[in-house]
Amino acid sequence: LSWAYAGISPTETTEEPKKGCILRIYRREKYLKRMRGFYHDDGMIKVITGVRRCGKSCLMQSIADELVESGVASDHIIYIDLDSRENRKVKTTDELENLIDMSTPADTEGTKYLFIDEIQNVEEFELLINGYRTDGGWSIFITGSNSYLLSGQLVTKLTGRYIEFEVFPLDFAEYIDMKRFLGKPVNDLLVGEFTEYLTLGGFPKALEYEGEDEKRAYIKSVIHEIFEKDVKHSNKIKNVSVFDAVQTYLINNFGAPTNLKNLLAYFNDVEKIPIKRETLNRYIQILVDAKILYRCSRFDLKSRRSLIREEKYYLADPGFYFAMNTDARINYGPALENVLYLYLASRGYELSVSRIGKLECDFIARRRNAYAYIQVSMSIADRGVEEREYRPFDHIRDGYPRYLFTLDPLLQERDGVRHLNMASFMQDGGDLI
Question: Kind of pairing, strands 305-315 and 293-300?
Answer without folding.
Answer: antiparallel
